[in-house]
Amino acid sequence: MQSWQEVERYPSGMEMSPLPRASTADLIPAPKHSGLTANLLFLVLLLTLGTGIPLGYNIVALNAPQTVIVNWIRSVGCRRIHNFSVGPENSRNTSRFELWCHMINDSSDDQLMVTLAENPELNTIWALTSALFSLGGIMSVFTTGYLMKVYGLKSSILMHAAILIVGTGISCLSDQAQSYEMLIFGRVIVGVAVGSGNVLVPIYISEISPVALRGALGTLPTTMFILGMIIATTLGLPYVMGNEQQWPLYLALHLVPVLVMCAGLSFCPESPRQLFARNAETDAAQKALIWLRKSNDVQEELLAIQAERDREKVGHQLSLLGLFRDPFLRSALWLCVVPMIAMHTSGFSCLSFYSTFIFSASGLSPLNSIYASLGLWTTFLFMNLTSLVLVDRNGRRVLLLTSHVGVLISLGFLVLTINLTKQGFVGSAYGSVTCIFAFIVFHGLSLMSVPWILGAELFTQEARPAAMMFVSIVCWGTELVAILLFPLVIAQAGEFTFCIFIGFIVLTGSFTFWALPETKGSSMEEIQTLLQVRFDKNK
Questions:
Q1: Where does the record place the Major facilitator superfamily (MFS) profile domain (predicted)?
Q2: How many CB atoms sit inside 10 A of residue 84's CB?
Q3: Domains of the chain by range and CATH?
Q4: Among positive and negative, which fits the CA dihedral 50, 57, 243, 437?
Q5: pTM over 0.85
Q6: Which of 16-30, 151-165, 351-365 is least confident?
Q7: Measuring CA to CA, which residue among 349, 333, 303, 311 is closest to residue 481?
Q8: Sign of the C-alpha dihedral, residues 205, 62, 486, 385?
Q9: What is the full DSSP assignment across 387-436?
Q10: What pLDDT, on the 0 to 100 scale, is given for residue 392?
Q11: Is the pLDDT assigned to residue 232 strictly greater than 50?
Q12: CA-CA distance, 148 to 461, in Å (whole number)?
């Protein structure tokens, strides 16, 4: 493949003269390039492969081999008890010795739940091992904006790939070091790295994509995310790699697509908008566009990019505080944040981390529960690919509203079928499984992908990093709260826990219906005009 740096400059020797600051009525029309080129597809696939797959992989990596890793944590704790005593009879606390040194039967999920309930210290360590990955995601957003401003999108992504490699190494060496603290710390570092990719890649894709393809290409990170979940669930089967001997290597396999991405990005350009925004590198931006579009006719798109930059010259890169101080930007921020809240308060995060447990509670065997989880993520992948086709055809708003209605109905019937199962109705357990699959069908239609598209396309260059930073904080924060509280709440409320999710879906769906405009087929400049008109009207 030809490197973007080998592209010849546009032969006409076009000079980009500064444009006057444009008003909403003087916006450059949307560029005419709308086709998908091999170079554009190559770059988008690279970006999503190296960031989406590791994210999905690590979200569910501890799900299938849960019993194996909990047993390993117990063995580490047991060994530490032995280090301070000759044997259990000389231990200061014999009951603590029994709690930590009695291994769990690998085939018994029920016994695992009982053991975790009986050993609060072990339960806390296991919860931290799962949940602090999300804390790393929250931490990442506070540095991502600064790195993007200083180094650009491409270099920032490569930096966080290096961080991901370091964090993975720490996690994998925890077995040799007999330290569950290393496993937890390594997952926090991995969370920081993949969380940054979760911010940077949607921005990158939105900036390099033609208007007609921005929605479809914007769903690819979610597609790769789901593919990562499928790969992790498959490799986590006990007879594949989810066993005592191979789980450290299993935690490292997500590095394969990361290394492929790092190698491939050397042939690819920085985002043309970033080249303009940081150093006004007109020639480099022109070369990047020619490479992406595989056409020398990029003058119209260059003019549109420079027009946006010139309008923002008098301003500066907005901070998060500056975003909240501006009433117009604050109103646009709500349009991104509410769908992001819906993504996780719908119950999806709990299903991701506890799917095997939920299927076991529905009456499936432990191994069949893993197979059911695998089928669940495969269904999710299919629906996300469907979303890729529909998002630019039917629109963001229509898909979001359809998802809200479907999720609402699915959760309502799930509460009913679980309650019937508890009352002994034969076959109702399979109704619960059907409801979970229906939930995934409607959630995958838009709630997993469209919120990220909105965050990247509703803001100008100067506000986009801060906006995506806050959207990511909301994403990781709601996920962290959901996965930490779900085991506690479901122990008290049982199946009625899902009524909480129903309440959130009603609220976020109502907001989407009344407040969210349709943005399909609109350039970023046209979207700003639309938002400004709506804002002025509602003043």
A1: 44-520
A2: 9
A3: 36-80+110-268 (1.20.1250.20), 322-538 (1.20.1250.20)
A4: negative
A5: no
A6: 16-30
A7: 349
A8: positive
A9: HHHHTTTT-HHHHHHHHHHHHHHHHHHHHHHHHHHHTT-TTHHHHHHHHH
A10: 83
A11: yes
A12: 12
Structure tokens at 64: 């299938």
**What's the burial of 97, exposed, middle or buried (CB within 10 Å: 0-12/13-18/19+)?**
buried
Phi, psi (rounded to 5 degrees) for 144: -60, -45
- Residue 517 burial (C-beta neighbours within 10 Å; 0-12, 13-18, 19+): middle
The 3-state DSSP class for residue 93 equals: coil
Quote the CA–CA distance of 202 and 44 in Å, as a whole number: 10
Handedness of CA 120, 114, 371, 502 (dihedral sign): negative
Distances (CA, A) of 231 to 61, 118, 334, 505: 9, 32, 34, 29
Q: How many CB atoms lie within 10 A of CB 312?
A: 17
Amino acid identity of 507?
A: L
Is residue 370 exposed (0-12), middle (13-18) or buried (19+ Cβ within 10 Å)?
buried
> What's the rounded Cα separation, in Å, for the pair 531 and 307?
18
Q: What is residue 60's DSSP assignment?
A: H
Residue range 276-292: mean pLDDT, rounded = 80
Residues ≥6 apart with Cβ < 8 Å to 314: 21
Q: Nearest-CA neighbor of 396 among 518, 296, 486, 280?
A: 518
